[in-house]
Specification:
Strands 4-5-6-7 form a 4-stranded antiparallel beta sheet, with no helix packed on it. By secondary structure, it is mainly β. Helix content is 0%, strand content 47%. The chain has 2 domains: 108 residues, no CATH class; 106 residues, Glycosyl hydrolase domain, family 43 (Tachylectin-2, Chain A, 5 Propeller). The protein has no helices and 14 strands.
Length: 216
């Protein structure tokens, strides 16, 4: 389990403490214990504040890839994605990670509907192609879900310029937004995309899922 944890380190100019990535393991899927190094991952680049949330890990050959969301420095107004890797056969401790997005973000908002935020990446591989579902725009700003693809699992480009899971029609449960996707691959190989939505700006979130089918 890779998850963000808030730590007591203030980001200058924002008055916020930051989140970094921790790692925990379990023998039964119920009881988890932290690994020795905490935090497990801290961004080491020229463009972001020391913050990492929305961890997504997936395997590419002998590497474990880690996507994370962070914000630019010094303003911390725009959410972007970074990417790093560690040897898959290692213990994934803090000293095993190599950041690839050192000079610039790996993926960042470019389209009008993405506004100032890309976050919550989730990845699945099918027939040698990696697909990344991601959330565009911040929560409460009509967040919607887009898709990008990659032939090597590292360099992604948008599949289309419109969201594949937009917010719902007027009167629907997700009229205000559909966001924060998470992919789940079942034992039978079927793929489900879980996502959150709400009907109004100040309404409560609900969860839903849809099966994702890849066609030739």
């Amino acid at each position: 389990m890779f998850a963000p944890c808030r730590v007591g380190r203030a980001n200058p100019g924002t008055g916020r403490t930051e989140c970094l990535i921790l790692h925990a393991t379990s023998d039964d899927g119920l009881n988890f214990r932290f690994t020795e190094t905490r935090p497990m991952f801290t961004p080491q680049n020229k463009w972001s504040i020391p913050r990492a949330i929305d961890a997504e890990v997936y395997r590419v050959g002998d590497r474990l890839m880690l996507m994370y969301a962070t914000r630019e420095k010094p303003g911390a107004q725009i959410q972007r994605l970074g990417i790093a890797w560690a040897p898959f056969a290692s213990d994934w401790a803090a000293d095993k990670w190599t950041e690839l997005s050192t000079a610039k973000p790996f993926f960042e908002p470019e389209l009008p509907w993405e506004m100032k935020c890309i976050e919550a990446p989730t990845v699945v591989e099918r027939r040698g192609i990696w697909y990344m579902f991601y959330a565009g725009a911040y929560n409460h700003e009509r967040q919607q879900i887009g898709v990008a693809w990659s032939a090597d699992g590292v360099n992604f480009k948008r599949w289309r310029n419109e969201p594949v899971f937009p917010h719902g029609k007027p009167g629907s449960w997700n009229e205000w937004e559909s966001g924060h996707p998470g992919l789940f691959v079942d034992d039978d190989g079927r793929i489900y995309l879980f996502y959150q939505g709400k009907s109004t700006l100040k309404g409560d979130y609900s969860l839903s899922c849809v099966e994702v089918v890849f066609k030739d």
